[in-house]
Description:
It is found in: Nucleus. This is SS18 N-terminal domain-containing protein. Belongs to the SS18 family. Its main location: nucleus. Pfam families: SSXT (PF05030). The protein is mainly alpha-helical. It has one domain. The protein contains 3 helices and no strands. Helix 1 packs antiparallel against helix 2.
Amino acid sequence: MLDENHHLIQCIMDYQSKGKTAECTQYQQILHRNLVYLATIADSNQNMQSLLPAVSLPVMWFLGACNRADQLVHQSMSQNRHDKK
Length: 85
């Protein structure tokens, strides 16, 4: 879409330089539609980021520690089963 917009801008500039402003209208409408579409996508992505909670460093550390503790418990349980055989 960015390449298309670049091409549209080039066409608009060419027509304007030749004094054919009436011919620019079609290209300007397409360019406007594309820009509105891109702005809508950018706004929706921004809104999604604001809805997601920020994970703080202590929470990330705690989750990592819990995961490691879980791994150690499973490792210990496997070792105990192996030792009993």
